[in-house]
Write a structure and sequence with these properties.
- By secondary structure, this protein is mainly α.
- It has two domains: 17-103; 105-200.
- The protein has helices spanning 25-47, 50-74, 79-103, 108-127, 145-151, 154-171, 174-198.
- The longest helix has 25 residues, at 50-74.
- It is globular and about 55 Å long.
């Protein structure tokens, strides 16, 4: 294992597994913002309207912040909700970025490198928390602090989800977007290597 510490669950169980249920206020918010954002993105593609597409992105981002905030404040954070949120994020991101590539095809190289990073590598990293008794990737510092800092701390999440989209929309510079998307992909691959070196815990086989 080299210099990696053995990951352990939080001893106070502040971030551990609680009561699991699918239907909570937070998951309802997740479902509503997902449907609303996808509908807006589809409408934007049909109308060839960049303003509608930006609105779809705004609904996705605001809804994503709102469902997490609601879950923490109302005490309804669940692993089911975390996984649903992760998958819905990917659907919303795909709807926006495919729409952007449709409207601005010259941005496609940068967009599809970013989608490879976000929808495949980052998705795998994000659901890896299920191998440990924590509620969501937001609490992965219990398992490994560097991975949490690189991927799920607030600055890391802002960098991964917001910077790329804002840069493309404001500047339209494909090559700069491609550099940023490639750098994010490298960071996620490095994170994947670290995760592999830590080792995903595998439950013992029972009869």
């Amino acid at each position: 294992m080299g210099t990696y510490a053995q990951p352990v669950a939080d001893p106070d169980d502040r971030y551990g597994v609680g009561e699991e249920r699918l239907l909570t206020g937070a998951t309802v918010i997740t479902a509503v913002r997902t449907v609303a954002s996808v509908v807006l993105a589809a409408w934007a593609a049909y109308e060839q309207d960049l303003t509608l597409l930006v609105a779809a992105l705004g609904v996705y981002w605001v809804g994503d912040m709102l469902d997490g905030f609601y879950a923490r404040v109302r005490g309804c954070e669940t692993r089911i909700g975390a996984v649903l949120d992760i998958f819905c994020d990917r659907l919303n991101a795909a709807a926006f970025y495919v729409g952007l590539a449709w409207l601005e095809p010259e941005l496609s190289p940068a967009i599809f490198v970013y989608l490879a990073e976000f929808m495949v590598v980052d998705c795998f990293l994000s659901i890896a928390f299920l191998a440990w008794p924590v509620r969501s990737p937001n609490y992965f510092f219990v398992v490994d602090r560097p991975l949490w800092l690189w991927n799920w701390s607030k600055p890391a999440k802002a960098l991964n989800s917001a910077l790329f989209a804002v840069l493309l929309l404001v500047t339209g510079w494909m090559w700069l977007g491609l550099v940023i998307a490639s750098a994010l992909l490298v960071l996620k691959l490095v994170s994947l290597v670290r995760l592999a070196r830590i080792g995903l815990p595998v439950p013992a086989r029972t009869s």
